[in-house]
Specification:
The complex is a heterodimer. Chain A is an alpha/beta fold. The longest helix of chain A has 18 residues. Helix content of chain A is about 30%, strand content about 25%. The two termini of chain A are about 15 Å apart. In chain B, helix 8 runs antiparallel to helix 12. The longest helix of chain B is centred in the N-terminal third of the chain and has 32 residues. The chains are: A alpha/beta, B alpha+beta. Chains A and B meet through strand 2 and helix 4 of A and helix 4, helix 5 and helix 6 of B.
């Protein structure tokens, strides 16, 4: 079984931007280890020394809020933008990882994206369609891991 | 008609700053007619969110205001709430708060210096292009950032945002062993930070000398994180409670964020240059010697040297963290007793970008009835615009790409965190066509 790492990315208090963290929390409640980061720059190191990296994050431009899709690095290099709270976005962080540590980066990197509307300010809770998408995002992440987690 | 020409340089979207912003420089002939820094980040309603909440919730709520500097918001908020409640946490807990702040300065400063600002000085369009030639520097910067993260994660209780800070202190104290486990890496990263400074000193720094009025905290004998009083370089000294008597905010038509000025005087600058120029003698002797070797004896008035001052502050924070850890004796309790009561409290602290002021008014049940938050980036808007006005003549004969580059580099001297600089005052979104 290949080694895998799950990372939820997001910002608490950012409304729907927190969904990646909430899905990671739900995975942890199921006994699946999942890291949580608010700064995508941390992904540079988290992408190393595993065979598979699964990222969970809010994405703008994916479709109506609550749409769930699995994206590849190629998808992230295009117009789809995971929401970022700091200098580096997810796509940039992964690109840095490949540039700086070419021999150590996970060969397989996937992102479970949950579509949100562009963040508009401080919101405390997930919007209803994004909250409703949490179970599907969790299931999609587990399916990517396969094996005993699916 | 005289035949004079006009030229408008508009940067519709500032790259490599947190949040969204745009600037416009308008020339008429040889004169700079108008400079505008537009912040069209949607106004944040956090002051409204706080009303009706318990004072005990304020640190957790304000930590969510800024994704980059949650510790700064927590430190200013607990200072203000504790002022309202008449609470003094004592030297042991204050030392831990300084340590937590060290972590935030380290991670914020190094990421900005290397990933956001260094590309400007080296002529790269972005950090990715820079990393192809300076990969080792970027790796070092990420390692230093991680060391700062580790402090925040340990003392703050969680990587994603601190949950261990409370009014009166902390929920849990770290053990001496837990803290000492950080020291080896902090010391190694201090060496890396000095090496990054050595790398950056070789950059080309544009020449711009400005006669700023600086505002920072200026305690006696210690480089400030959470200690007052505040002081301006033109002679004012005041406590947090006296802040409204000295600082006034006002609205400008082109920005959602309030501008700030000193009563009866004018604009000012907060941030690393202000701290450095006003507290240089409080730096350790070896850092003062390093500064002298870099040619950075105060007063430093070239905003482009903020890059190096951030580097010095990063080295300082790494060393200060080790010092605090080595001297650490766990206080008798993680927090001091508090009693909720009515009152108004003021607090300030030095966020990575400058002084952050909070004020809360509480009712007799300790519920927030009023809140005012003045972030450093709001306060620096005037200084940023004045810098742009000062360099505008030198941009006049550059093509748009080169002029845009220099203008953006100038704005990035302030590492503006635009996401949290907007109070609500005027709910209007301005979009630069």
């Amino acid at each position: 079984m290949k080694t895998a790492r799950i990372v939820g990315v997001g910002s608490l208090g950012g409304g729907d931007d927190a969904v990646g963290l909430i899905v990671a929390e739900a995975l942890a409640a199921r006994g699946v280890e999942a890291a949580r980061v608010r700064d995508a720059a941390d992904l540079v190191e988290l992408a190393l020394d595993v065979e598979q990296l699964v990222i969970i994050d809010a994405v703008v431009g994916l479709g109506p809020p609550g749409t769930v899709a699995v994206l590849t690095e190629v998808d992230l290099a295009g117009d789809l933008q995971p929401v970022s709270t700091h200098a580096l976005g997810v796509a940039a962080a992964l690109a840095f990882a490949r540039l700086l540590y070419p021999d150590r980066v996970a060969p397989l990197i996937q992102l479970v994206g949950i579509a949100i509307a562009p963040p508009s300010g401080l919101e405390r809770d997930l919007s209803p369609p994004v909250e409703a998408a949490v179970p599907e995002a969790l299931d999609r992440a587990l399916a990517l891991l396969g094996g005993e987690h699916a | 008609m005289s035949g004079e020409t006009t030229r408008t340089l508009s940067v519709g979207y500032l790259a490599r700053v947190e949040g969204e912003g745009a600037l416009t420089l308008r020339y008429r002939g040889d004169e700079v007619e108008h400079v505008e820094l537009k912040l069209f980040e949607p106004p944040r309603l956090f002051e409204a969110f706080l009303r009706g909440r318990s004072a005990l919730e304020v640190p957790d709520i304000t930590a969510r205001i800024c994704g980059i500097c949650p510790v700064a918001y927590q430190m200013s908020s607990v200072a203000a709430v504790e002022d309202a409640l008449g609470v003094d946490v004592g030297p042991g807990l204050r030392a831990l708060r300084r340590l937590l702040y060290c972590g935030e300065w380290i991670e914020s400063h190094v990421l900005h210096m290397v990933m956001l600002h260094a590309p400007d000085f080296l002529g790269f369009p972005d950090a990715m292009a820079m990393a192809r030639e300076h990969g080792a520097r970027v790796r070092d910067a990420l390692r230093v950032k991680k060391a700062g993260n580790a402090i925040v994660a340990l003392l703050g209780g969680r990587e994603i945002h601190p949950i261990n800070v409370r009014v009166g202190g902390f929920y849990r104290l770290p053990s001496r062993a837990e803290l000492r486990g950080l020291c080896a890496e902090l010391e190694a990263c201090r060496g890396l930070a000095i090496a990054l400074l050595d790398w950056m000193r070789g950059f080309h720094f544009p020449v711009l000398e400005r006669d700023y009025t600086f505002l920072s905290l200026r305690p006696e004998g210690v480089y400030p994180f959470i200690e007052g009083p505040a002081a301006s370089s033109d002679g004012a000294v005041f406590s947090a409670a006296q802040w409204p008597d000295h600082v006034e905010e006002h609205h400008v038509p082109w920005s959602n964020a309030l501008h700030a000025r000193l009563h009866g005087r004018g604009g000012y600058q907060v941030g690393p240059l202000a701290r450095y120029n006003q507290n240089f003698e409080s730096l350790p002797a070896d850092l003062r010697a390093l500064a002298a070797d870099l040619g950075l004896r105060p007063p430093v008035r070239n905003p482009f040297y903020t890059l190096l001052v951030r580097g010095l502050e990063t080295v300082f924070a790494l060393g200060e963290a080790v010092r605090i850890i080595r001297a650490y004796e766990p206080p008798p309790a993680p927090a001091v007793p508090i009693t909720l009561r009515a009152g108004t409290g003021h607090g300030f602290s030095e966020a990575p970008r400058g002084v952050l002021y909070h004020r809360y008014t509480l009712d007799d049940q300790g519920l927030v009835t009023g809140a005012t938050i003045t972030p450093p980036t709001s306060q620096n808007q005037g200084a940023i615009e004045d810098d742009l006005r000062a360099i505008a003549p030198s941009l006049r004969d550059l093509d748009d790409e080169a002029a845009t580059w220099r203008a953006e580099q100038t704005v990035r001297n302030y590492d503006p965190c635009i996401s949290c600089s907007v109070h609500f005052l005027k709910l209007k979104r301005v979009v630069q066509p």
